[in-house]
Amino acid sequence: MVGAIPKFLTVDRANRAVSPVMPRRALPIPLSFPLPLRWHWVAMAALCVPLAFVLVQCGKAPSAGMLAASTDGAKSRAAKSRTSIDTFDDRFPQPQFADRFPTANESLPQVQRQVALAPQPRAARTEPVRVASLTQTLALPRSEREELTTLVSMKSSAFPYFGTNPRSEEPFLNISKGDRKGHRSYGGRVYWQDETYNDSRVLVHVPETFDARKPGVIVVFFHGNGATLERDVRDRQLVPQQISDSGVNAVLLAPQLAVNAADSSAGKFWQPGGFKRFIDESASHLARLYGDPKSAQAFANLPIVIVGYSGGFLPTAWSLEVGGVPNRVRGVFLLDAVYGELDKFASWIEKNRTGFFVSSYTRYTKRHDQELMQMLRDRGITVTESIDGPLRPGSVVFVKTPDGVTHRNYVTQAWTEHPVKDVLVKMAATPALTQVASAPYSNR
């Protein structure tokens, strides 16, 4: 066996078998020793040893260089994350009308005032405390009635509206995108009908002290731009609360105009008789909430006071001009709202000397208010610039509010706190303004 040369192993790819191949000038080797099996294990060892070295290296602790590289990668990822957070506000625009919306801290003082003004705290409600029935036998005694504030859908409310814009005589919905219809506002922005002009609800408020058997008044409140009934009219501007706190025998109707939009469109109140249809429809709803169906007669004849805030000037002006109930409107109160339609306001004042007109203003509407004052003086109408005394039939009052009073908070803070309440109190001092136009109602 001395000087023997081992055979090499080769693989027959076709037959998948291992066969010995003799190299050139190889010497004969006895076949009694199992050399092929022996070299098979050698080949297996040659394959396994390098793999073992790799596994050993994987099991070792990471070196300082590896740790440094890992740390640098983590820092890089953290920097990218911080950059993403820093630029979030830049990539996502802020809400519209941020100057009109309350912050989380601004609603707290209003809640505190509400507790101080009321003997018992009144929680804001979105649904009636009880369901009033049209059945006479279910009417509750006066002592058991509670204050009701709710949202009622009315067909005659401002929207939806599919008519024309009287300014241009063109369709109000003047933009189309597929099946969607929209309106391009005076400022050039497009608002869609299904989002902005599709809410027919009306905020209705009946104070617990209201008595349909006594002289009273319906207050119609037209809100400004960028508003909703619940968030702004009820909770921020406290219009229902101001009416209750005034102690005046009054109820509230506040229709939803353009929802949360920079648009003062009047909708159905542009149409001749549109305001009358709204008031007529409201009588049955007010009677249902009051709890006595016979009271519908009283609500159908109550005098009306229109309060317009900011962009609410437009539905106010058109309701006075073409609304169809000139004899029932006993008063108009504008809160920083004379942005236009001066001829309509001047015409109503001139023709209705038994009602009152009050316009309070800031620097934003000062120019238009002064122009309206001059128009009235030119027509021989006396104008007063003080609201210290009671409001009487024929009163025309313009009130300049001091610097520092903001337009956004004007419904709760003008020349005085809670100006809607203040005007109603001054109005109630003159009984003639709240007398019922027809035979009194009796639930007996």
List keywords for this structure.
2 domains, disordered N terminus, 13 helices, three-stranded antiparallel β-sheet, 15 strands, eight-stranded mixed β-sheet, 444 residues, Alpha/beta hydrolase, alpha/beta, AB_hydrolase_fold, 33% helix, Rossmann fold
Explain how this protein is built.
This protein has helices at residues 35-59, 64-86, 88-91, 107-117, 193-196, 229-236, 239-246, 274-290, 296-299, 313-322, 342-351, 366-378, 419-428, and strands at residues 8-12, 17-21, 148-153, 164-165, 170-171, 175-177, 180-184, 190-192, 201-206, 217-222, 250-255, 304-309, 329-335, 356-361, 396-400. It has 444 residues and is α/β, with parallel strands linked by helices. It has 2 domains: 8-59, no CATH class; 147-434, Rossmann fold. The strands form 4 sheets. An 8-stranded mixed β-sheet has the order 3-9-11-10-12-13-14-15, sandwiched between helices. Helix 7 (239-246) packs parallel to helix 13, helix 10 crosses helix 11 (342-351) and helix 11 (342-351) runs parallel beside helix 12. It is globular and about 100 Å long. The N and C termini lie far apart (137 Å).
Break the fold down into its secondary structure elements and pairings:
Layout: E1 8-12, E2 17-21, H1 35-59, H2 64-86, H3 88-91, H4 107-117, E3 148-153, E4 164-165, E5 170-171, E6 175-177, E7 180-184, E8 190-192, H5 193-196, E9 201-206, E10 217-222, H6 229-236, H7 239-246, E11 250-255, H8 274-290, H9 296-299, E12 304-309, H10 313-322, E13 329-335, H11 342-351, E14 356-361, H12 366-378, E15 396-400, H13 419-428
Parallel strand pairs: 10-11, 10-12, 12-13, 13-14, 14-15
Antiparallel strand pairs: 1-2, 3-9, 4-5, 6-7, 7-8, 9-11
